[in-house]
C-alpha cells in the first residue's frame, strides 16, 4: 500500500489481539487496541483509525463478560462509522450466523464492510484490511457465513425429503397458473377436506370438485410421482408451504 494504515483492533481475547497486532504491524500498520464498546470509544478520542478489525460478540464494558446473544461489535462499528464515515470495517468472528445483522448494517447505509471468520488465512485478513481501507469496498461476506435468517418456510422445507422438496418446488411455481375456482378447491382440499366436504363448503357439486382436482394435479405437476409419494399428502404439504411462503416469504 502507498501509506501506513492505522488499524483499531477490537477483541476481548488478548491472545487474538496479540496475534493480529504482531501480524499487521509486520506489514507497516499502526495499531491501537480495545476490548469493549466503551474502550473502543475511549481509544478513538486520540487515535483516528483508517480500518477497524472488530469481533462481533463483545462486552459493552471491559469488566463485563460478552453476551453471546448480543451483537455489540456491530454497534461499535455503527458508532465508529458515524464518527469516521470513511472508516473500513472488518468483522472477524467465530460465528457463522451473524450475517443477517451485518447485512442490515450495510442496508442502513454503512459500507466498506468485510465479514471474515476466525481461522481465515492471515493473507485474507491483510487483503480485507487493505481493501476496506481504500474507501471503494462494498460488502463482502466469507463463504460459509449465513447471510439471511432462515424463515419458518425455510425450516419446514428442510424437514421434507429431497424428493418431496423437488416435487413441491415445481408445485409452488405452478400455483400461479390456477384459476380462481381451482384455487378455492385447492384451499379446501389442502386443508384436508374430502371432495364431498369441499363441495359442501364451496356450494358446488362433488363432480365439479373432481373436475377441478384433475386440472389442479396437472397444473401442479402432481401426476406420475415417484413410488411411495402420495399426491393427496403432497397437496396438504403444498398448502402449508404456500401459506408459510405468503406469510414469511422464503430466503
User: And the CATH topology of the largest domain?
Assistant: Rossmann fold
The tally of strands reads 6
Shape: elongated
The CATH class name of the largest domain reads Alpha Beta
Strand content: 5-15%
Largest sheet properties: 6 strands, parallel
Q: On the 0-100 scale, what is the average pLDDT?
A: 88
Which structural class best describes the helix and strand composition? alpha/beta
Q: What share of the residues lie within helices? A: 40-55%
What is the correct CATH architecture of the largest domain?
A: 3-Layer(aba) Sandwich
How many discrete structural domains?
A: 2
The CATH homologous superfamily of the largest domain corresponds to Response regulator
Distance between the termini: 39 Å
| Rg calc | 27 Å
SSE order in H/E notation? EHEHEHEHEHEHHHHHH
- Strand order, largest beta sheet: 2-1-3-4-5-6
In terms of per-residue confidence, which ranges show pLDDT below 50 for 5 or more consecutive residues? none
How many DSSP helices? 11
Structure notes:
The protein has 251 residues and is of the alpha/beta class. The chain folds into 2 domains: 136 residues, Response regulator (Rossmann fold, 3-Layer(aba) Sandwich); 97 residues, Orthogonal Bundle (Arc Repressor Mutant, subunit A). The chain is built from 11 helices and 6 strands. It has a 6-stranded parallel beta sheet, with helices on both faces. The longest helix is centred in the last third of the chain and has 18 residues. The relative contact order is 0.10. The model has no long low-confidence stretch (mean pLDDT 88).
